Amino acid sequence: MSLIIGATTVRAQNNKVPNAPILTLKDAIEISLQNNYDIRLSRNTSVIAQNNVTLGNARFLPTVTGSYTIANSIQSTTQTRSDSTVNRINGANNTGSNYGVDLNWTIFDGFNMFATYDALKQRRQLGQVRLQDTVQRTVAAVITTYFDLINQQKQIEALQSVIAISRTQLRYANDRFQVGRVARLDVYNAQVALNTDTATLIGQQQTFKASKIELNRILSRDPQTEFNVADTIVVDQGLILANIINQAQTQNPTILSAQISQRLSEINLKQIRATRYPQVSVTTGYTWSNSSNPAGFARVQNSRGLNYGLAATVNIFDGFNQWRRERNAKLQIDNSKLNSAQTRIEVEAQISNLFSSYLSGLELIKLGQSNVELARKSLDISLEKYRLGTITPLEIREAQRNFLNAQSIFYNSQYQSKVAETTLKQITGAISLQ
């Protein structure tokens, strides 16, 4: 950017890294969606919840197990028969084996399996909501950090313009001192002003570097990766408060999570009440058995066959624990309803505060843009008057401060509005991922 001051042209540096690629906001978002660790962790958690939604996990289906056992022993046996004869067997090798297939199936558990299946589906939905929330939060962090870099880059350029003016002021002071029109004190003051501006610039550049490292961290790449950013902040000026609040009721992740938690607490009560009903299950299986016992009456025995049965249990009395669990489950439902209502109020309050910040930022942008032009013209006039010796160094310094403050307020207003806009869209899950 060029600043025309009287007959002097001052060109501010653009603070770009030579040979470094320009990282567009779209590219930054795409990199974060691929690399960000929080998104990847949340995605895996969501897939786990999806995998858990099966009839088998809800205990609708039977379980089938196979078994095989073999046992061996070596025994010495002495048998005294009824006719007083004695039979001695030394080192008899006894063997036995069993193998078979068994099926167990709970056919009624007080409708608990239906409640469990509903709970699994709700947890799947909760995983999807949390994944979407993580994605939106990450993208919002990318956007705000990216535009923070643009804001800081503009602040650096403004400081570089002021430093250029301070150098011009120092040169004028030296020229006037050489011809005896001012005291050396004016030269010293001009040098102090230049040093102060330079120190401020160094601090701003360090902040800019730290923000670059932070953006690289969010993108999950080498913190020292160099890049350049765009130089324009465009604020969406079409946001409407009523629309945002309505969208939040159906799309805000915090509200949706509270609603799912309420449904889970209601399902939990159904699961607890299921233990009041009988638990009925059927079993069946087919078993093969072989045994060899030299000392037995039947030295070799083989058997096979089908077994089946029906089992039913019912809770008659458990020390009033059933009543206690149901009572607590009802209280959990009440708590979840209260939490859901509280969440709605907190989200609406957050939206109202952000929208107020958004509107004030838009007003400051309009005011700041004209104020920068006025401050620039005032600085032009002041520097020319300083060159002619009609104003003091303090007056030119004040004009510099006004110019720098006007630019700082303007750029900060743009950033403030952009952050508020981004956060409002993130709250409603409406940030574009493209």
UniProtKB/TrEMBL annotation:
Classification via Pfam families: OEP (PF02321)
GO molecular function: efflux transmembrane transporter activity; porin activity
Transmembrane is among the record's keywords: yes
Primary subcellular site in the record, as a coarse category: membrane
Cellular component annotations (GO), alphabetically ordered: cell outer membrane; efflux pump complex
Location of the protein in the cell: Cell outer membrane
Keywords, comma-separated and alphabetical: Cell outer membrane, Membrane, Transmembrane, Transmembrane beta strand, Transport
Gene3D superfamilies referenced in this protein's UniProt entry, alphabetically: Outer membrane efflux proteins (OEP)
Family named by the database record: Belongs to the outer membrane factor (OMF) (TC 1.B.17) family.
The name this protein goes by in its record: Membrane protein
Native source organism of the sequence: Mucilaginibacter galii
Lineage, opening ranks: Bacteria, Pseudomonadati, Bacteroidota, Sphingobacteriia, Sphingobacteriales
